[in-house]
Structure formats: C-alpha cells, structure tokens
Design a protein that fits this description.
This is Putative DNA binding domain-containing protein. By secondary structure, the protein is of the alpha+beta class. It has 16 helices and 22 strands.
Length: about 450
C-alpha cells in the first residue's frame, strides 16, 4: 500500500525535533516494538486524540538530551508499525498517516494522527486500555479506572443507575403528574415510568429522579444543581471579593431548572452597563444563545461527578461550565458537526415536555453560534478541561470588516471576496466589495494584477 510522502523544509524539521511531548503529541524511535507502540495509540484514542511521530531518536550529546531525525529507509520498513493500526482500527477509521521527508535528513518519519474513538481501545502488548494524561500513557488497569473511562466515553451512563429511594418519589410527584396530564393523559405514571426504564427493580433511576422528582438534589446532592455567580470584574479568574452577591443555587427537576437558570442569567447580564457611542447601554444577547448553551450544559453533563453546573457572569463575558469531558468521539473540533448524547434517555424524554428546552435536538450549540454570528458578535469559545467543558460567551463585537481583512493580509499574500466573507462572518459579496473599495481609497490595498473581476484578489500596498 502506497502512502503519501510529504516533503518538508528544515525549519519544519527543527520545529518537530524541538516539540515538547504533551497530551496531544508523542515522539518515538523506529526501534520501538510495534506492540509497545499501541500503548500510545490506545492512550490517544481513549483521550482527546493526538499525533505520533515515529522516526525521532533521543540521545545525550555533551550531557544534554538531543533529538535526531532517523526515519525508515523506505515505506516497506514501516509495515510492521502500520499493521498495528489496522489491528486496532479494522474499519480504517480514527487514524491517518503520512511519511515526511526532508533533504539532508535520514529516512522517512511516519506522522500518525489518531482521532478520539467512541469505543475503548486496548493496547496489543498488554491487553488493557491506556489513557493519555499530559505526556504519559496511563494504564487503566483497575475496575474503578475502567468504569470511569466508560463513563467519560459515554459507553456507560450514570443516568441508568438506580437511586436508593422509593419509586413514589417520581410516581406521585408534581412533575410527573403535570407531565402525564399534558403529554400522555391516558397512561398511569408507574406503568409508563417502568416502560421507559426510569424505574428498575422497584427503584427510580438517576434519569427518572432528575426529570420527575420534586427535589432531585435531596437524592443526588452536589451533582444536579446550577450555581450562578456574578463577578464585578473582567479578570481571568473570579475572586470572592469581586462577587456582587452570594452565589445563587438553582434546584428542582431539570425542566424547571433550565428555565430558571436561563431567566436568572439573562436578567443579571442585562443589568451590566456597557459604554457604547458615549452612552451607557445594557448588554443583550440573542435569546437563543443563553438558552441553548445552558440547556446543553445541563442535559449533557456527567451526573456521576460531584459538582453542579456553574454559570459565571463577568463584566465582559459569561462562562458556562458543565461537569464531565466531551463524550464518545466528540472533540472541540467536531462538536458542531457530530452528535453523541451521554444522557440519551434524559435528552429524549425532556424533548417530549411542552415547550421542550431542547426543541431542535442536536442543534443547540449550532443555533447559539449562528445567532452570535448574525449580530456580528464573537462566537462562543469551547474549551475542554480535565473534568469539565466550559463555553465562553463574550460581550464583544467582531472586529470591523476592514480590520479583519487587513489582519488576514498581515499573514497572507492576498485575499478574495470568498475568503473575506468567511473570516468576517459576512454573507453578502457586495458588503465585502464595498469594504475592499474603502481600503483601496485609503491607499492600503490594491487588486492583484491579472486577476479576473469575478475572482479578484487583493493585496497590501507595499
């Protein structure tokens, strides 16, 4: 099988050799046994994905660790290493590879990109899964670690666990009675709840308690509420002395919790003054932004983690932190394109409530991002922490179209209307054309000679 060979320059070689091994990067010698290599492959696939470069030696020169490029003599020499990928990923998914060459450097270095896998991947030399943490491949060799990994990847869900409580906490509650009357008036609560697997062996499940108990927090303390903080600062971290008031705790069944959390956050945000055009104005987001992001944080969090959803409101942003890492094969890069429900039962059933908070299942974050883009506000930023996911929503407009164009031209030779529309989050060709003309009139850019009118490219004036 022929694999693409990409020629790189010496600067790129130096960059690879000087790279620090990390949560997303590993460097290996061609002498590594293929079976042992699978520990790194397993660790990346079970975490957030990453890259492995095979063909980098590490040795001591004058007492200092130095890296040396020493790749495979040819593609066939790497066959044993390539074979392990086919054994671990028989369907050919979740990885890709390229051979790298450089004039003056020895052999071909194999660059492998490993994507996060929705299943648990085990190593071959020692048939257990590994997990990447920092620059280490940690064996998941106890029942407790394996159970945690299954929860993190969404293979198991805490929502199906039973709670030590009588089933009457959900069969005779106000939430279930209101739901049944409005949605399924012909059914009896107990029978319907059993059919939905929300009661198992006479005990309510976590999902059943969250959806239909009047006070889920009494049965699942410290893991199913929402905390709202208001910090009067734009600092990176909120401190106690910056709190405008004591944190607000929002409890109740998930349906009520989402409604109250969204309304409370919206009211607090709209009280924040912002100076604009010499006048103090109140901050406003599109209605769907806070609703969709908070709904997503509540419904898709990991309920096995002893921590509430946290909403932190600063002078210049809102942070929504949801306990638990991204599940399954979901990553920061594909979260707006792919779908994976950690709490599938909760997501499915809350969608049946009147005026369901997740009306468009799977479209929540997309809706929020599109709403911010329409108003030319900076789109939210998603970050994955060790045990949580945070969405940052800033009260900031995008840079002007002209600024976006000039910023792009600082790093690129030229720019077209199509590229400018993308980087400036604008749909209209005529709007971009007008911006190009304004920049030309200011003597900042010119049309690249020889480009056609329909596909004109612009460049900075020297």
């Amino acid at each position: 099988m022929s694999i693409k060979v990409e020629k790189i320059n010496h600067e790129q070689v130096v960059e690879i050799l000087s790279s620090e091994e990390s949560h997303f990067l590993d460097l290996k010698s061609i002498n590594i046994k293929p079976a042992k290599l699978t520990r790194s492959i397993s660790a990346f696939a079970n975490a957030s994905g990453g890259e492995v470069y095979i063909g980098i030696d590490e040795t001591k020169i004058d007492g200092k660790n130095q890296r040396i490029w020493r790749g495979f003599a040819d593609q066939e020499d790497a066959n044993a290493h390539l074979q392990v990928f086919q054994e671990l990923f028989p369907l050919g998914q979740y990885y890709s590879y390229t051979f790298l060459s450089c004039d003056g450097c020895i052999g071909l270095v194999l660059q492998v990109e490993i994507n996060k896998n929705r299943e648990i991947v085990k190593a071959l030399d020692r048939p257990i899964p590994y997990l990447r943490l920092g620059a280490q491949n940690l064996p998941q060799d106890t029942e407790e670690k394996l159970a945690r990994l299954k929860l993190d990847k969404g293979i198991d869900s805490f929502e199906t666990s039973t709670v030590k409580a009588d089933m009457e906490v959900i069969t005779n509650s106000l939430p279930i009675l209101n739901f049944m009357l409005r949605v399924i008036p012909s059914a009896e609560p107990e029978q319907w709840l059993k059919k939905q697997q929300l009661i198992i062996n006479g005990k309510p499940t976590v999902g059943g308690v969250l959806l239909f108990s009047e006070e889920p927090q009494a049965l699942l303390p410290k893991r199913c509420g929402v905390k709202v903080y208001r910090y009067k600062t734009a600092d990176e971290e909120g401190r106690r002395e910056n709190l405008a008031f004591d944190p607000i705790t929002i409890e109740g069944c998930l349906y009520d919790q989402i409604i109250e959390a969204v309304n409370k956050t919206k009211n607090i945000v709209e009280e924040i003054p912002k100076l604009e055009s010499g006048r103090l104005q109140h901050i406003e987001y599109p209605d769907e932004v806070l609703h969709e992001i908070i709904t997503n944080a509540v419904l898709h969090r990991d309920y096995s983690i002893l921590k509430d959803v946290q909403i932190r409101i600063f002078d210049n942003r809102v942070e929504v932190e949801s306990p638990g890492r991204l599940p399954g094969h979901i990553t920061i890069e594909n979260i707006l394109k792919e779908q994976f429900a950690r709490n599938g039962v909760i997501v499915r059933l809350i969608n049946r409530f009147p005026e369901a908070p997740n009306k468009d299942v799977g479209e929540g974050l997309n809706t929020a991002f599109e709403a911010m883009t329409r108003l030319r506000l900076k789109v939210p930023v998603i970050a994955e922490q060790e045990n949580s996911v945070i969405v940052y929503i800033r009260h900031e407009p995008l840079a002007s179209i002209e600024s976006a164009i000039m910023e792009y031209l600082n790093d690129h030779e030229n720019i077209t209307n199509k590229i400018a529309r993308r980087i400036a989050s604008v749909d209209s060709e005529s709007t971009i054309k007008a911006a190009f003309n304004r920049l030309r009139e200011q003597g900042l850019i010119e049309i690249v000679p020889g480009t056609k009118t329909a596909t004109s490219a612009w460049r900075k004036l020297r």
